[in-house]
Amino acid sequence: MSSKFPDHFLWGGAVAANQVEGAYQTDGKGLSTSDLQPQGIFGAITPRVDGDSGIKDVAIDFYHRYPQDIALFAEMGFKCLRTSIAWTRIFPQGDEETPNEAGLAFYDRLFDEMARYGIQPLVTLSHYEMPYGLVKQYGGWGNRKTIGFFEHYARTVFERYKHKVQHWLTFNEINMSLHAPFTGVGLAEDSSKSEIYQAIHHQLVASARAVKACHEIVPGGKIGNMLLGGILYPLSCKPEDVLETQRQNRDWLFFGDVQARGGYPAYMRRYFRENGIQVEITAEDQQALRETIDFISFSYYMSGCVTTDEAQNNTARTNILNMVPNPHLASSEWGWQIDPVGLRYLLNVLYDRYQKPLFIVENGLGAKDRVEADGSINDDYRINYLNDHLVQVAEAIDDGVEVMGYTSWGPIDLVSASKAEMSKRYGFIYVDRDDAGNGSLERRRKKSFYWYRDVIQSNGNSLKDKA
Predict the structure, then answer these.
(1) Quick check: 258 and 247 in contact, CB under 8 A?
(2) For residue 154, which of 107, 97, 201, 214 has the smallest C-alpha distance?
(3) Quick one: CA torsion of 136, 141, 143, 147, rounded to 10 degrees?
(4) Residues taking part in catalysis
(5) In this structure, what is the dihedral angle of CA atoms 99, 226, 180, 281, given to the nearest 10 degrees?
(6) Are 6 and 400 in contact (CB under 8 A)?
(7) H helices within 327-379, ranges in order?
(8) Cα R_g (the chain), whole angstroms
(9) What's the pLDDT tens digit per position in 47-93?
(10) Which of 21, 37, 209, 276 has the fewest CB atoms within 10 Å of its CB?
(11) 375 sits in which H/E element
């Protein structure tokens, strides 16, 4: 296909500190909430005791092997790498006044290594983790004081890296707090809706304060939000299904509405009122929220359907967001439905709604890869998945949507977020490690490595439109 991608398009990949770095207590790092979730974001919260270990403690040892991995990303031609800063490397307990210099120095080395190859960092401030000290001492995001601790952290890293990082994100998949409260806001899973939305409110205020700080500190810096793009379709054209679909889409679009428009929408105030949800929103909070993001970033893995038929809803209790399956779509090995056209639809929905630049910062296929006798890994299923989604991105750009870039999720195999598995592989680069933590950690290029290199080199011209 002829390329529809702009010349400055930011091609690359995306990782998260807690899924790749390992070194979980190295150089003064404190315990994060992720360190207490050895079975993933939906697993039990497990206190750490002497002598225990989890797969994320080493992960893929990116902390020590990043020069090798950055060189491989550069070989593919990456223009951009999305990663996160582990908050507990900078402030081990979360409430310190003085940052941990060893943690700051690590990210200096990482960003310098990326700069050697001309790879721009896109940095998430909080990606599915926060200092466990803030949960233990203050109650996580349920405590208004956490806003100040986060702002102090954000200002610290903005000052330190203001000449190295131009693109920032505040909270990863901020709407996920509705499904995984401990992961998102440091609250117990059985917290009330009022408690969860109060914590979310504190996080939204903190996000806005970070946006203001970025605009003040980072010359020419741009900062966005990050949404889990769980777009939903009505299962039927019954008006009740269409209306319920709108309501459920607003459950996650609400976060974008606050961050991009600068205040709470009327439909959310009605939702709070009708469900007895009490959220303290001060005049100072309302003023803070007016500082809005520069661009919208989001993840997209699958779509889902909505119905008001309870019998059909009961079939949806088995996947990550309780989505009703779409009878017209195939599914991955993990039951995630594959819908490339949904990405084009979502891009248009978000651009119509916000009229801000969009950045696809996660999209990929988790699958079980097999190493052949000759050492090759022929992941044509991944190539087909990514090709078909990128063709739809090109169509959205042709629709008039302003898309800044595309960072595929997990360009190198990593520990999956949902269940802390290595066997659920996303990468263009294979890492020799299994779910039990066995393996050499050797890196190996998959077939998709060369495919993505060609996509980037041709600025999308090598994609195959199968229509």
Answers:
(1) no
(2) 214
(3) 120
(4) 173, 362
(5) 80
(6) no
(7) 340-354
(8) 21
(9) 888 888 899 999 999 999 999 999 999 999 999 999 999 999 999 99
(10) 276
(11) none
